[in-house]
Amino acid sequence: MKQLLTFIKKEFHHILRDTRSLLVLLALPIVQLLIFGFAITNEIRNSNIAILDNAKDETTQKIITKIENSKYFDIDRTLTTNNQIEEAFKSGKIKLAVVFQTNFQNVLAHTNKAQVQIIADATDPNQATTLANYANAIIMDYQNDLNETNKPPYTISAEIRMLYNPELKGAYSSVPGVMGMILLLISTMMTSISIVKEKELGTMEILLVSPIKPLMIILSKVVPYFVISLVNIATILLLSVFVLGMPIQGSLFLLIVVTVLYLICALSLGILISTVTESQLAAMLLSLLGLMLPVVMLSGYAFPIANMPVVLQALSNIVPAKWYIILVKSVMIKGLGLSAIWNEVLILTAMTIFFLFVSLKRFKIRLQ
Amino acid sequence: MKAVELKNIVKTYALKKSSVTAVDDVSFSVEEGEIFGLIGPDGAGKTSIFRILTTLLLADKGNAKVLCNDVVKDWKTIRDIVGYMPGRFSLYQDLTVEENLDFFATIFNTTIQENYDLVADIYKQLEPFKTRRAGKLSGGMKQKLALSCALIHKPKILFLDEPTTGVDPVSRKEFWEILKRLKKQGITILVSTPYMDEAKLCDRIALMQKGKIMTIDTPEAIVNQFGKNLYAVHSESMFKLLNDLRSFTKTESCFAFGENHHLTLKEECTTELEKYLLASGHNNATIKKLEPGIEDCFMQLMKK
Asked: Touching check for A368 and chain B: CB below 8 Å?
């Protein structure tokens, strides 16, 4: 026991004396969360839009005024023909175009139905969705105003078109993604690097020729990063609740339990990587390329899994972050309980046991 | 009981296409309480032998025992009782002198206090720097610290892989004095070195070359085996002298050796040689008889 404690103390010395790396470890989650958090969930204000009013009657005028008065939109230009829409988008100055059908007011009055087309530049899908939803909301708002006095109700149907990227899915909240990424990055990469460092510097040679057990070496390597990751979890959760305004709907306890589970999974993956690499650089590259890419690409963090080719969908199942992100979304955003998520919990547990088993099997008691 | 026993050890490393035989059918034994030196240039197989004995590598063939423990079966026992100092400085550079020593004491289930008398000699020299980080020590100091760390658990046998490589001559001398004192405490020491001048400080040595042991004996006996007169030849133009000496018909061997060339002859003919050198244009050539050293023996054995 004293051996283990001294060993852990030694590991903390290594970490604390490398202040620059420590700062990166602690500041990275904050920076990432703020950047991703604000980049994806920020409110869009004063976006330039174009209006093509084919009706030019009282109703369309009212809607246009309402749009203009909102804090979200500034009318950049008024178009006269359909051909100008494409041109306006290509100029890059507008992000959205609103098109009213001809005889809008008359059609609405006689058939109780009229059409507005909302066209968005979906090269930035998240922004496009947000803008289109805002515009739609304003029109619906106007429709509701009208219907207070009108029976049978009028329906203004807004047809939303996403230009350049029709296969658009809604934005995912970034917090689960950042949590999945940061924890994996810090736990896996740092653990693997710190174990491989002993090999590279030759100290592993002395450690092996000593009575200390492999399990003890591994455990002492893992504990410090476990602690640092716990600090990171706390910062991420505090930031997401108080800065990003994202409340924890479900049980905080459950959220922490699944996070610790994921943490252990990430740490054991780090140990596994350390058993297959010989240099710090190799360990870092393997952790970065081998883990970061799948986590970003295949976990459902950046791209919706449902939109992927079947092969990639299948592949995404072996990415632990995918299951963790589902867990965080379920617990944190949807507020679900354990009964709804036991499946994912089981999968993560199985993965952890697998990683631990393989790395203990692979841990070399000799140099070759 | 033999401290170390190797029988027909073979170790090959597989490279991409070929393979290298690092240790080629090596057998020797080390008595308890002696300083045994493995002497040989880089690539002679010294480190591989150390790693096999410290259970870090598995030999392809043969068997080895450390204090009657088999290096394959009883690796756990061996790891408890040996002290190992690898060739490369392998301590934690970002830990202080004291922290390093304390760490290694603890993982060997002991404390600095418990075995202080064993390392006292060395550690006293390090004590003024005990709060300094190991990475900031001088080369000699680093080796002394590494030795302290290898000694702190009172091992029965010490494996020192090139402990004095890259260390200044004064520190090297001090280091060997420390080894002599450790020997008096009954610790068997197996040490390797590429420096031939350190060979005579060992009780027995094995001269190694390309994975093979050329000879094993006490340094005195090896020198006595030389059996030839050795001459140091010097002149103004040393490079030309080497070529001239090598083309002299009665030369057996001639090597550049510091500021002289070391020469052995097939028969005693120094007067003839003097004439030959004069005729070759070496006006101030001197020929002196010399006591052979280990390196001369090494060169002689290498030629065989």
From this structure: yes
